[in-house]
Amino acid sequence: MNDDLANLTIATAARQIKAGLLSPVALTEALLARIEALDPQLDAFLTVTAEQALSAARKAEQEIAAGRYLGPLHGIPFGLKDIYDTAGIRTTGHSRTAENRVPDTDATTTARLIAAGGILMGKLATHEFAHGGPSFDLPWPPARNPWNREHFTGGSSSGSGAAIAAGLVLGAMGSDTGGSIRNPAALCGIAGLKPTYGLVSRFGVIPNSYSLDHCGPMAWTAADCALLLQVVAGHDPRDPTSVDRAPEDYRAALTGDIRGLKIGMVRHFWEEDLPANPEVREAMETSLDVLRDLGAICEDVRMMPMQDYYDSKVVIAESELFSVHRTDLCERPGDFGGDFLARSLPACLFSGADYVEAQRRRRILVDAMSALYEQFDVLVTAGPYGPAPRLDSHDPMAFWRKPSIATPFDVTGGPAMSICNGFSETGLPLALQIAGRPFDECTVLRVADAFERATPWRARRPDLTPGPEPERPAPYAPPTPDITLEPATQTLVDGLAARAGLTLTDSQLAFLYQAAPDVLAMADRLRHRRDWSEEPASIFRLTP
Q1: Catalytic, out of 23, 156, 160, 242
Q2: 35 φ, ψ to 5°?
Q3: pLDDT tens digits, residue range 313-343?
Q4: Residue range 418-438: average pLDDT?
Q5: Contact, 125 vs 94, CB < 8 A?
Q6: Cα gap 69→62, rounded to integer Å
Q7: So what's the pLDDT on residue 28?
Q8: 126 FRET partner, CA 20 to 30 A, in 27, 207, 388, 486?
Q9: β-pairing, 119-124 with 45-48?
């Protein structure tokens, strides 16, 4: 294997390709050989498009030799989370229910990357429909963390995180509804940017939550994320949420200079709302010292409680997800993985009024965030907490029981980025999170890039050598919970499930019973008397 080529950043590879020092064909061949050698241990890919990749690399090489260089993605190998449609190439959402789905057209993002000369290497693992968990009861196993293959990658853009960290691709696209770009970026030690809602088209991307889905880049560095964003950002009339504004020059924003920037430190998130482990806390204090040394002005700031954002996000997202998959959930629930069912089925317990209340609460949270950005250029908090847990420690019910430090920035819609800020004693990555004003990706990327330049973490790569495939357990669903509800609650749950049209096995119903107390409590926390003028965040206006 050629580690030198696999460890190139997009920016470095692009300079060498443009100068004629690096062949796109040689780079693609090297990464395909690496995929063949290493992916059996990592399960990052669902589909490898080797022939198409080599054909595209040869075309890129010929175009560049003829003086038709298209820009810094020309000849660069990339991957797509398997929710991005690819014409003629299977796009499954990592689900048995779409196992043989082959789209006729490309997603807008797919088309833009290919038009920029990018080399599609294949489709990457995800949690089921960008939502479930690291499930072992699906047609493909979950991706594994390159830093330790018995550990979780974070999700749901799991294969994207693993493939970049392992040097199987130089960049990838993920999606983020509640942290699904930033979670694997944090746990795999790479960079991942959730752009502003509406900046990158969702057309041709399998939906999770229409109101909260963000498409964004993942790569080894913030600078590489800027290069990817430059290509995929921009208006798309086929996406009704797409914003009609020209992209900024994201690469030019990376000056390395953050002197005088005002940074709000959201310390209460990792100290009070969801207390982090000592390694995360220590890494955060060190990171704040780095930002101060770079000339930033850092002050503590308080946002709304983390649970407030989480309640709003989960009620909105799960209600919309249930709607997306309602027919299959009612007609063939057994074809879904257990992790997906443990998250999606309980949405039948939310009412239409609960959904509207969550959207009304979201508007309040957005307004409160906007006020903070009148005082600060960016906000900084911990990234999703490392070190990555073991794959066999996953609990599907944890989704309902504790908030996420990534979710506040999905609810409020502005850009947020996770970058590596150190390693645990066991050698697993830790992360810093940077968030900014809507459509101010430039400042978020500028801070992230300056931090990466000032710290040693981009020089550290996982130790990977070809070897035997990991021992994979036989496919199994999560164990059926042993749960007894109060009779009145059970009657309520049974009635709501029946009204939703669900016909469930005893095991599936047990997951619904187990989640019910937390689900009903979440809905109850959102039920407040509000002024009639407090409209939901889903209200929109037509533009001429």
Answers
A1: 156
A2: -60, -45
A3: 999 999 999 999 999 999 999 999 999 999 9
A4: 99
A5: yes
A6: 10
A7: 99
A8: 27
A9: antiparallel
Euclidean distance between the first and final Cα of the chain, in Å?
Answer: 56
Longest Cα–Cα distance of the chain, Å, equals 75
Long-range contacts of 84-91, Cβ-Cβ distance < 8 Å, separation of 24 or more = 84/109, 84/110, 84/123, 84/173, 84/204, 84/205, 85/110, 85/204, 85/205, 85/206, 86/110, 86/120, 86/123, 89/47, 89/49, 89/52, 89/123, 90/46, 90/47, 90/123, 91/123, 91/206
- Residue 323 a catalytic site member: no
Rounded to an integer, what distance in angstroms lies between the CA atom of residue 315 and that of residue 356? Answer: 9
Place 458 in a pLDDT band, splitting at 50, 70 and 90. very high
Of residues 23, 81, 95, 194, which has the active-site annotation?
81
Write the DSSP symbol of residue 269: I
Q: Helix 506-525 to helix 487-499 angle, to the nearest 10 degrees?
A: 100
Q: Catalytic residue at 81? A: yes
Contact 70, 63 (CB under 8 A): yes
Which of the residues 158, 180, 287, 344 is marked catalytic? 180
pLDDT value at 116 more than 70: yes
State the architecture of 3-305+362-459 in CATH terms.
Answer: Alpha-Beta Complex (3.90)
DSSP 322-334: HHHHHHHHHH-GG
Sign of the CA dihedral with 150 first, then 153, 157, and 160 last: negative
Mean pLDDT over each residue of the chain, to the nearest integer: 96
**pTM for the whole thing?**
0.97
CA proximity to 9, closest of 82, 76, 101: 76
Residues composing the chain = 544
Q: What is the pLDDT of residues 302-313, one digit of tens each?
A: 999 999 999 999
pLDDT digits (tens, 9 = 90+) for 197-225: 999 999 999 999 999 999 999 999 999 99
Q: Are 507 and 479 in contact (CB under 8 A)?
A: no
Residue 537 DSSP label: T
| Structure confidence by residue, pLDDT tens digits, 481-516 | 788 899 999 999 999 999 999 999 998 999 999 999
Residues 6+ apart with CB under 8 A from 141: 43, 472
Q: Which residue has the tokens 């889905």?
A: 213
Half-sphere exposure of 231 (CA within 13 A, CB side): 26
Rounded Cα distance between 272 and 522, Å, is 20
CA dist 351 and 523 (Å) reads: 9
Q: Is the dihedral of CA 28, 34, 36, 42 positive or negative?
A: negative
Mean pLDDT of 396-425: 97
Q: 481, 336, 488, 503: which is closest to 400 by C-alpha?
A: 481
Is 180 noted as a catalytic residue in this protein? yes
Which residues are CB-neighbours of 238 under 8 A, at least 6 positions away?
108, 201, 203
pLDDT at residue 544 greater than cutoff 60 = no
